[in-house]
Amino acid sequence: MLVKIYPDNPNPREIQKVVDVLKAGGLVIYPTDTIYGLGCDINNSKAVEKIALIKGLNLKKDHLSFICHDMSHLSVYSKSLENHVFKLLKKHLPGPFTFILPANTNVPKLFKNNKKTIGFRIPDNPIILEIVRELGNPILNTSIRDDDEIIEYTTDPELIHEKYENLVDLVIDGGYGDNEASTIVDCTQYPFEIIRQGKGDLEL
């Protein structure tokens, strides 16, 4: 299913349609402020395992990230933030960053990797933020990669739909995506470490 949602004014009915799919354990492809993402409800272990299978992920070893809708939502799933970490996040979110933080006990057991950390994203995109807000909890976020090493990321939602329609339950057409991933910042140590330089420029 391909659903058109306009980022400047997301239709509540269409948003609810996506939320219903997520609540039923479905997989959804959605726009962010960087590349298109593939996600599911973090509380649905079967859906999470399906994504791990599609992406070849090891849930105990690979770095995984959640999309939250704002800072207070993020703080429900991370250990209490030190002041300098809080200031950094406040300055850069919503935005094209993934911040690695210590996970707390609200993070489902399925995601408890050896380091007990989770990447957190609050993308500057009203479509996905509204979906997560309506859902009431974060979604697991992974990127849609392209088989073509030169292109790396597919930006056209119709082409994404063609490729993934048999693997996922719903693809959102929120306009063309970017072809540059988020900047990943490890905040579990100080000074902070940039694990991957992407679209976001970190200002300290």
Automatic annotation (TrEMBL):
<dbReference type="InterPro" id="IPR006070">
    <property type="entry name" value="Sua5-like_dom"/>
</dbReference>
<dbReference type="Pfam" id="PF01300">
    <property type="entry name" value="Sua5_yciO_yrdC"/>
</dbReference>
<dbReference type="InterPro" id="IPR052532">
    <property type="entry name" value="SUA5_domain"/>
</dbReference>
<protein>
    <submittedName>
        <fullName>Sua5 YciO YrdC YwlC family protein</fullName>
    </submittedName>
</protein>
<dbReference type="InterPro" id="IPR017945">
    <property type="entry name" value="DHBP_synth_RibB-like_a/b_dom"/>
</dbReference>
<dbReference type="GO" id="GO:0003725">
    <property type="term" value="F:double-stranded RNA binding"/>
</dbReference>
<feature type="domain" description="YrdC-like">
    <location>
        <begin position="12"/>
        <end position="200"/>
    </location>
</feature>
